Amino acid sequence: MIEESVKSALGHLARLNLQGDVYGERSQKVTFSIMNGEIADSTEYEDMGLGIRVIKDGRIGFGYCVPGKERECILRAAELSRLSGTSGIILPEEQGICNVKTYDEKVRNALEDGMGSELCGNMIDAAVSTHKDIIPSHGGLFMGSGTRVIGNTNGIFLSQDFTAIAGGIAASIPGERTSLVASESKCSRRMDMDFEHLGTLAGDKVLSMKSKSENPSDKLPVVMTPHAMGMLLWFGLIPSFNGENVRKGKSVYQGRIDEKVAGENISIVDDPTRDWGMGSFPFDDEGVAASPIPLISQGYLRHYFYDLKEAASSDTISTGNGTRGSFKTPPQIGDRNIIITGKNHPVQQLTEGKVILVDGVMGAHTSSPASGDFSVVANPAWLVEDGVKLGRLDGLMLSGNLPGSLETMVLGDDYEKLYDTIGSMSIRMELPSIRLTDITHSG
Amino acid sequence: MRDILNRLVDRSTADHVEFRYHRRDQKRIEMVKGDSEEVHSSTYGGVGVRVLVDGAWGFSSTNRTDEKELTDTLRIAEGAARLSARNKKEKVVLEDDLSPVRGTFSAKVNDSVTGYSIEDKVKLLIGLDREMMSHPDIVSTRCLWNELQDEKVIVNGTGTDVRILDEKVEFYAIAYADLRGEKVVGMESRGVTGGWKDLFSRKSPGEMAQDAVKTATQLLKAKHPKGGNATVILNPELVGLISHEAIGHTVEADFVLSGSVAQGKIGQRVASELVTMVDHGNASPHAAGWTPVDDEGTPSQRTEVIKDGILKEYLCDRETASLLGMTPKGNARAYEYSDPPIIRMTNTFIEPGDHRLEELIEETRDGYYLQGAMGGQADANAEFTFGVEKAWRVVNGELTELLRGVSISGSGFEVLKSVDAVTDDFEFQMGSGYCGKFQMAKVDGGGPHLRCEATIGGKQ
């Protein structure tokens, strides 16, 4: 049905002699939320709608609507376009689209069969069974499937089904002054997640926080888990590859294409063509064919990323990085599926000697993409010696410079897929644990 | 719509049922460097249905509002509840003594923004943006306008049948200056429940734009602070942020039951005796978190979370109030029709004291006067980290130099225990922001100025 609505909207655009694109999304979602060791509630719903962008005299107007209201939405968007500045945006034409796996029938079947309650229950039971004092304090399970459709007045009409499943659980041990809390989460597009294992990992992690170590006064290497590193990179480094930030001078990488900016074995790629990636799709939310964008290759800065609008402003072409939080938001530049590669070491090697292990950071949003400087609170964090957790560290502040850290970082081999949402933007990455040697720690 | 919803309530076999029709008109305008970046206007709505079956909640929603579709949505919600009930050990029980609420509740609006055309608003923002860009030190600017007109109808199994007409509006003026490749930011923003005159009752749009430029250019000359523990004077925005982010979330009953640091602390001293912290959806008609009746149909009441330094109450919905033996006071809120109600703050603030701000600064030998928040994050243990827009060094009772790139961190309750002075002024200053706990919510926060101890993050 969503395909028909997109076609209907494109028909209205043609009859009104307007240029534009139509993004349609239909999704069915089931969620179970965990509170205080129980499934607190369940939600199930289907959402469907269209985001319509009208281009009139080079000016863009945007509106969104439910199916059946396409014409009114187009007329309203056309009216609003008068108030926009001229954009120079050029809509894509038909291109070769690669195959990318994004849909697993097993997730769809699990969703239809109502398996979420049982899987969520298994996750809770596994966390509880690790120790009598542990309470699975919060978390949840999500299963979804749907269809994305993008069409435009240049003849593009693309459609792709997708599935996603995610689970997360926070295990806590209540204390007199503070509670110990550790969480684990995983996500996938396939029915390949072990929820029991997730619960066990969360339980084991919080148990490892029971003993406390003194915050070290000597400077030690810092090993960031994929989750901790993901937050830091997403706020403090990835925005520096955003073409708009580059043009506006808000990027540390402005004017540095082909410069050496990282260790020679380090590469960062935004690859939406990778099968089953959380941000993978064969086309972006503006209908541009997806392709891997090497941002840093073997230590050298190679590309920034662009959507159609910023490409027009920067006099270049879109890299397929037009993203939307939902049909309700107009496209904006966003990363799709960030992967860091390089010489990978067994993760155990990263914690050889005495190191600080960090599994989460607070305050990453205060990082500066213009300089790459960051100052965050590490939580949870442990003092580790030769892979053994000696005790948790409280109130540890970390500061440093992310672009500088790219020169010396050491990659583990324990890649994890990360997915999170911040406002209308999504964090979608595949990262290993990473050892950093030039971080200042205090507190 | 109300007739259909009431018919469906009567037909439902669930132990409890709630229907919430929500229609939203939104207009958003964004200018960057004098050119319009985004102008968008939308109307959307739908119905959220929540049911309690076999002691478990189920929720579903639809953006199609005919009776057949709503009947189907009710059945899906009932099915979801039965799925939850399979693994539910502690069954949800609601107290039966909630009185039904009926009537229409309208926001107090002085000079509705709907009386101004979108062209008027675009023209205003273009003018302000270009005026800010005309300053030689300013390299980029951004002006943002966002308005929401909401109509809600809440009908539930207790006989509640209310209609809420709400209007909220936000405005931002942001100026960026360049300091050898590093951007410094001056930001002025305000968000209110109400209209044009309410939004600009403190400063005109032109004054807000000028002040944003002034801050950015002042920060160009500022140095980074030296990190460490320090005496700090927090302005009402930072007081609101600590109240909301560091303390408020830990006293939300869902987090309390999940083991937050506030669990089991009712009746204990958690702050200086100078501190009384309140959440109240009806505290002020123009506070951005104005919520006369929540999405479970509970009228808003004042919740004294901390009274003279003692923890008194948690913020509850109907379910957690039953569990904890407390009274629900209007904190079950949903952002859109497709969101289930969850426990949220509304307007969260600290009550004023009896110091004057001038006295507070004069009495401070060595410390910082912190103004403006640049985002914040906190955890279930009340540990927080906030960015600060401007930090004035205070030496021997005088503001000496301005510092930039400042962050503060600490434990929210420890910081409140260290409060040794509270001023007699009061402002809500967080109305332009949103809370993002699982779903968005329009909230406000504020208070007087506080003097306390916290950790300053710095690069010196």
Note down, in words, how this protein is organized.
The complex is a heterodimer of chains A (443) and B (460). Chain A folds into two domains: 2-207, PmbA/TldD superfamily (PmbA/TldD fold, 2-Layer Sandwich), CATH 3.30.2290; 222-442, no CATH class. In chain A, the strands form five sheets. Chain A has a six-stranded antiparallel sheet with strand order 3-2-1-4-5-6, with helices on both faces. A six-stranded mixed sheet of chain A has the order 18-17-14-7-23-20. In chain A, strands 10-9-8-13-22-21 form a six-stranded mixed sheet, with helices on one face. The model of chain A has no long low-confidence stretch (mean pLDDT 92). With 443 residues, chain A is α+β, with helices and mostly antiparallel strands. The longest helix of chain A has 15 residues, at 116-130. In chain A, a hairpin with a 2-residue loop joins strand 2 and strand 3. The radius of gyration of chain A is 23 Å and the shape is globular. Chain A has helices at residues 2-15, 70-81, 105-112, 116-130, 195-207, 226-236, 243-247, 308-313, 347-350, 402-405, and strands at 19-35, 38-56, 59-65, 135-152, 157-173, 180-188, 222-224, 267-270, 293-297, 300-301, 322-323, 332-333, 338-341, 354-358, 361-362, 373-378, 381-385, 388-392, 396-401, 410-411, 416-422, 425-431, 434-436, 440-442. By secondary structure, chain B is α+β, with helices and mostly antiparallel strands. Chain B folds into two domains: 2-220, PmbA/TldD fold (2-Layer Sandwich), CATH 3.30.2290; 228-457, no CATH class. Helices cover 22% and strands 39% of the residues of chain B. Chain B has helices spanning 2-11, 67-86, 118-133, 196-199, 205-220, 236-247, 253-257, 318-324, 357-362, 412-417; strands spanning 16-32, 35-53, 56-62, 102-106, 138-156, 161-179, 182-193, 228-234, 277-279, 303-307, 310-311, 332-333, 342-343, 347-350, 366-378, 383-395, 398-403, 406-411, 421-422, 427-428, 434-435, 441-442, 444-447, 450-457. In chain B, a hairpin with a 2-residue loop joins strand 10 and strand 11 (310-311). In chain B, helix 3 (118-133) packs parallel to helix 5. At the A-B interface, strand 1, strand 2, strand 3, helix 2 and helix 4 of A face strand 2, strand 3, helix 2, helix 3 and helix 7 of B. Strand 2 (38-56) of chain A pairs parallel with strand 3 of chain B, so a sheet runs across the interface.
